[in-house]
Amino acid sequence: MSRPENDAALRIDTSRPHPARMYDWFLGGKDNYPVDEAMG
C-alpha cells in the first residue's frame, strides 16, 4: 500500500511548464502538455 506522503511526489503538475517536457515538445515528442508548448 502506498504512503500518503509519497503520493504528492508522484503527481505531475500540468499547470506549470517543465523544462524536460518543453524539450520533449521542441523535439516533436508526445510527452508534453499545452502549457509546455506555450512556454516553448
Describe this entry's structure for a reader:
One of its GO terms (biological process) is methylation. This is SAM-dependent methyltransferase. It holds the Pfam family Methyltransf_19. With 40 residues, the protein is an all-alpha fold. It has a domain of 26 residues. The chain is built from three helices and no strands. The termini are far apart.
Helix/strand order, N-terminal first: HHH
Task: Give the helix/strand class.
Answer: mainly alpha
Q: Supply the number of helical segments.
A: 3
Total strands: the figure is 0
Beta-strand proportion: under 5%
Could you estimate the helical fraction of the residues in percent? 40-55%
The Rg value, from CA coordinates, equals 13 Å
Shape: elongated
What is the terminal separation in angstroms? 38 Å
Q: What's the story with the biggest beta sheet?
A: none
Poorly predicted parts: none
Average of per-residue pLDDT values:
88
Layout of secondary structure:
Elements (H helix, E strand, L loop, with lengths): L3 H7 L8 H8 L7 H6 L1
Summarize, please.
With 40 residues, the protein is an all-alpha fold.
